[in-house]
Amino acid sequence: MGYLAGLLFGLGLAVSGMTDPARVIGFLDIAGAWDPTLAFVMGGAVVTTFVGFRLAWHRGDPLFGDVFHIPTRRDLDGRLIGGAALFGIGWGLSGYCPGPAVASIAGLSWPLAAMLLAMVGGWFLARRWS
User: Fold this and answer.
1) pTM
2) How far apart are CA 103 and CA 20, in angstroms?
3) Burial of 59 per CB tally in 10 Å (0-12, 13-18, 19+)
4) Which of 26, 34, 96, 122 is deepest in the core (most CB within 10 A)?
5) Which residues contact 89 (CB under 8 A, 6 or more apart)?
6) Residue ranges of the chain with pLDDT lower than 50?
């Protein structure tokens, strides 16, 4: 099921144009040629997540698993805030977040390769500091 969910997610990113870093950069360029496409994609994701969580909470057991894996932590710490800041900086500089970056591997370019290498390096650093 994880594979199918990832495939559906990647297809959604490709169909919505979010694998094009120019769309993301255009969304962040609020003083220039602003592109609102990302806002609509995020809005669709928020609505889908809202409905999905409500359905999951009303269901006794998952269809394809033993338990639901729903986040329970509600606190903020320096690691979370620092990681979110690094994510945002990397996203703004490259125009890619991890999902669209992986979905764009078929059209690999030097900027995409640099972003993917930085992302993998960040994973290793995060594991080392944990």
Assistant:
1) 0.69
2) 10
3) exposed
4) 96
5) none
6) none
